[in-house]
């Protein structure tokens, strides 16, 4: 008995040492497992960069269910389809078909019908600041096709084109899904098609895998597919309209952001900058702001309202800051000169 104690206590020591060795092994392998898991999760984002919608696009997507590359490629293909389908000039474009048959009912598919209808609804909502019938004016300034004929038109030419502008000249036949343009107006969907394409991109991702996450970007406009790694916000920089810096960061787990600015597509004559966002009430490029950034639930809204906000903010930015949140649009305005104004609701997205 007496002799047994030491050996007993020896056994005890061995056991404890075993426990320690075992737990450190366990902890070690757990750590390695965790690290592997994290690396795997990080690796899962597939990124595709290309050109579509008249700009550079980036698709960043992850899925546990299907190869994310399949999703990204399907999205890119759809973006290319939308690019020509709603182009102002492409021979395959349904917009061109409508414009080329004035005063005639043109039968269209559901997608076209609802997008043109949405465009006119945004025109109604913004008192015509957003107007999808600026086609003739854009043509006059050269802001169509490949931007080969950029020029400052004469006042008379602008007066004439203004007579053939106005969304009320787009007629809808709900029953037969037909559209007609009257009074020589031409439809241009450049202010909304990109947003629509981004919303479609998200739908496509979710049709492959309802739990897919990531985002799609086209020329700085972003649509969230789902939060980063399923739980974190994506951080989106707002570009300085007069430099390469980022002037603000926003954090989004869902929804969309779009910016309209005078710095992407413009030309300068005699020191005056002429850009592609036209004020439908004057026929000239909208003045008074450098950029308007909108956060909204969907990209179609963000896109259309950023164009509208750009036109309106130059006249009365205070009213825009107060009115737009009621339409679900949280906004940041960079006024001419660089002063920044934002809606109270925008601030909610400026932190994690
Ligand atoms: P971007 O395409 O650079 O993101 P916007 O979203 O503001 O910029 O869209 C600008 C485009 O919208 C123009 O190129 C033109 O096709 C069209 N557009 C210009 N002025 C208007 C307007 N007042 N209402 C609706 N669309 C417009
Ligand atoms: Mg827009």
From TrEMBL:
One of its GO terms (molecular function) is metal ion binding. Magnesium. Can also use manganese. Its cofactor is Mg(2+); Mn(2+). The chain crosses the membrane at residues 20-39. Mg(2+) binds at residues 191, 303, 307. Coiled coil: none annotated. Its EC number is 2.7.1.180. It catalyses: L-threonyl-[protein] + FAD = FMN-L-threonyl-[protein] + AMP + H(+). The keyword Endoplasmic reticulum does not apply. SUPFAM superfamilies: ApbE-like (SSF143631). Keywords: FAD, Flavoprotein, Magnesium, Membrane, Metal-binding, Transferase, Transmembrane, Transmembrane helix. Belongs to the ApbE family. PANTHER family: FAD:PROTEIN FMN TRANSFERASE, THIAMINE BIOSYNTHESIS LIPOPROTEIN APBE. This is FAD:protein FMN transferase. It comes from Thermotoga maritima (strain ATCC 43589 / DSM 3109 / JCM 10099 / NBRC 100826 / MSB8).
